[in-house]
Write a structure and sequence with these properties.
The protein is of the alpha+beta class.
Length: 138
């Protein structure tokens, strides 16, 4: 896939990504375009984009293709869902060792999101979701 494939209607957008190393950056870029189209101020997008980056990174590292990012607009918050093709690998929010280079992604999500969780869909993968406060300006 050359770039993220985006489609949706109304307050929901779906972004399809490959599981390659630049998927988190491509996911952030696609979500930025969605949020801008919804009238969200650029200054208010930072936390949500970090959450997108962490969840997509986890899907690339610990999951399997296909990776699908779903962005859902609600009043004063945005829900982002990242689905990957591996339902046997539930997310773990473990405390990383101080010298570890990885293992802090879900801790970041926990701090930035007002809610997060996951669900398995046997035979279809798992979805990790987070809701982040995001006031709209337009």
């Amino acid at each position: 896939m050359d770039g993220p494939q985006t489609h949706g209607a109304g307050g929901t957008e779906v972004i399809e990504l490959d599981a390659d190393p630049d998927a988190p950056a491509r996911g952030r870029h696609a979500v930025t375009e969605v949020l801008t189209g919804w009238g969200c101020a650029e200054s208010a997008q930072e936390d949500l984009l970090l959450v997108v980056s962490e969840l997509v990174t986890n899907a690339v590292v610990h999951g399997a293709e296909p990776i699908v990012v779903t962005v859902v607009r609600a009043a004063e918050r945005v829900r982002v869902e990242v689905t990957d093709g591996l339902s046997e690998a539930p997310p773990h929010n473990n405390r990383a060792a101080p010298t570890a280079e990885t293992g802090r992604g879900l801790s970041v999500v926990t701090r930035l999101a007002c809610a997060w969780g996951w669900r398995a869909s046997p035979g279809r993968g798992k979805t990790v979701w987070a809701e982040v406060p995001l006031p709209r300006t337009a």
